[in-house]
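Need a sequence for this fold. Nothing fancy.
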């Protein structure tokens, strides 16, 4: 292993001087989103319908329209009496997302949408079409409390958590876009969802796992997606990783590591001061042992900060300490934000970093970056608003 260079100290983030970015776990108090069918279990939906004076089976009909036919348009629900649908739709299918802006890139195969929620809060989602799949990157929070200095969302702070239905509605709207051929390439069916948009998913655990359950539940109670095509990311909230391990839903876990040594990672990912690199990797390894699902290690390559070849060696060493075959590394060229000091690594440096991992036997795939010409970094559009 090459001798490590002296550790860097990020501007304004000298952890040795005690100048740590403030993490935010407390959710600011705001009004609750309106009740929505996707927030409720099938039994709870039936109960609401019964309270409104209608037969419980009408809840299944409403669920079929939303999850199977992907519509909340009362005019399309012709199997329901007009008076009934006029009452049930506002009660259980309120409009949760209003499109503010839509930007396209990569020849129309990447679509980034800025949404306004019921209280005017803005969030983003990104739909990406490939030859063999269509993937949606969803937001789970408005803003983020993790304070990672290179992340546009992290610098906004946390506004509030999204509800289960606000997350699911992003997925439904993307599924409609795929079905209606709005992507220039890719299948007509949304196949993959990644929780890699705005927010730290594990800090909004209840709503995120609720959304995952709605995605994987069979029609008519859910979207009927494969859990194996859903990825939940985290910067390393170790207790939440343990909780996810016990859920019995084989989603993929992605750990946003970004540095293999505690000194640098505590600056890049401040939560590391609470749960270290070793603790995060141990939790990720446990997730693999319980679920059998290989874990993804996300590593944003930042020029002259975390992209040194010796850090590639150190990352490989840390991963191999915990065995082989349990992990896959995704180096990600950083999508810079305007005016930021952070930028992507030079191609030659990126290639050497990847080569070090592969030579150690670590499966490594450089993440395909999308949307750099449309404020591609997560949170940029919302930040402008």
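Here you go.
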């Amino acid at each position: 292993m090459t001798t490590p260079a002296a550790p860097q100290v990020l501007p304004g983030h000298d952890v040795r001087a005690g100048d740590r970015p403030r993490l935010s776990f407390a959710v600011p108090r705001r009004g609750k989103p309106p009740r929505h069918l996707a927030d409720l279990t099938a039994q709870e939906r039936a109960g609401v319908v019964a309270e409104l004076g209608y037969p419980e089976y009408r809840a299944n009909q409403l669920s079929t329209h939303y999850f199977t036919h992907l519509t909340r348009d009362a005019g399309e629900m012709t199997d329901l009496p007009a008076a009934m649908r006029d009452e049930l739709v506002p009660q259980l299918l309120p409009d949760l997302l209003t499109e503010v802006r839509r930007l396209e890139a990569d020849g129309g195969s990447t679509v980034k949408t800025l949404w306004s929620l019921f209280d005017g809060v803005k969030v983003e989602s990104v739909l990406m079409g490939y030859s063999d799949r269509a993937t949606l990157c969803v937001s789970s929070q408005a803003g983020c409390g993790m304070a990672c200095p290179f992340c546009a969302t992290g610098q906004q702070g946390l506004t509030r958590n999204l509800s289960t239905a606000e997350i699911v509605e992003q997925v439904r709207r993307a599924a409609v876009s795929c079905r209606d051929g709005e992507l220039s390439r890719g299948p007509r069916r949304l196949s993959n969802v990644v929780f890699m948009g705005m927010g730290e998913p594990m800090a909004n655990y209840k709503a995120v796992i609720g959304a995952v359950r709605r995605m994987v539940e069979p029609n008519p109670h859910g979207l009927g997606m494969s859990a194996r095509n859903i990825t939940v990311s985290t910067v390393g909230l170790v207790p939440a990783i343990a909780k996810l391990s016990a859920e019995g839903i084989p989603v993929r876990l992605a750990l946003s590591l970004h540095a293999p040594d505690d000194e640098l990672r505590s600056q890049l990912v401040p939560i590391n001061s609470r749960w270290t690199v070793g603790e995060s990797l141990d939790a990720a390894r446990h997730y693999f042992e319980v679920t059998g699902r290989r874990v993804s290690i996300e590593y944003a390559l930042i020029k002259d900060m975390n992209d040194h070849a010796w850090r590639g060696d150190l990352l490989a060493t840390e991963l191999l300490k915990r065995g082989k075959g349990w992990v896959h590394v995704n180096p990600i060229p950083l999508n810079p934000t305007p005016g930021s000091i952070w930028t992507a690594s030079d191609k030659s440096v990126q290639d050497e970093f990847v080569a070090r991992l592969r030579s150690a036997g670590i499966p490594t795939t450089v993440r395909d970056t999308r949307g750099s010409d449309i404020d591609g970094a997560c949170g940029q559009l919302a930040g402008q608003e």
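For context: Residues 95-384 form a domain with the TIM Barrel fold (CATH 3.20.20.70).
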